[in-house]
Amino acid sequence: MRAAQTQAWPARPIKLVVTFPPGGSSDIVAHSANDGYTLLVSNSAALSIAPSLLQSPGYDPLRSFEHLAYIGAVPTVFAVHPSVPANSLSELVSWIKEQPAPVAFGSGGAASVGHLVGEQFAQTLKLSMEHVPYRGAGPMRADLLSGHVKLAFDALPQNIALHKQGRLKLLALTSPRRVAQAPAVPSVAELGLAQLVSENFVGISAPAGLPRALAEKIAGAVRQISARPEFAQTLEAQGFVTRDMESKAFAQLIADQHLAWGDIAKKTGAKL
């Protein structure tokens, strides 16, 4: 019976669930039938951050899902106002240490990826910093451009044009290596801070218990689509960094990120 279902898949429309707010619909997918017709567009917020902040998440980021296919990730960028006398990450660190009061940094909101990257940066280098949560990246970016806040951790794509216009300085990316969209901006890994590499990933996951043959079929289909040049180019134009990744490696990435960000998220005191 299972073999016949796998061979026939897909025999009807597939429901792709996108979580918003973080973690909002993940529990629905976790408790759906494991027949390949309800899939989660998984991401860092829902799987690596939210479970540590929700009082009753209703799902476990590892045991409740089969993580099938990695699609890509959007790097987080260290963005500073031009008035900050720093043109490199090391100069930024020195500047922060010289300030008499904690340096405020902005993000798109409490417990956002940018918030956690900022907290991890401060903890790793023992810097005195204070988070300023905004209701979205738009208002935060407006305050950064005006100089109301001097430092922010934000998704790369929306900052590329501002950097080219000289309105912001981009000092580092949290990607494992430099990216084509901003080739002049170094990665934290090449700067000797590999522990700050963090992927705000997007992938495809399914409810736990999905038959292995069906899991392999879905994963193969997603990887095949992701390998198409036009698909990769569309994602890259939106700021994604794409690469091929086996299902086991994708699951391990989620496990590692959940472990690394779980304690940091709890220490922020944020609640979802």
From TrEMBL:
InterPro entries: BUG (IPR005064), Bug_dom1 (IPR042100). Gene3D superfamilies: Bordetella uptake gene, domain 1 (3.40.190.150), Periplasmic binding protein-like II (3.40.190.10). This is Tripartite tricarboxylate transporter substrate binding protein. It comes from bioreactor metagenome.
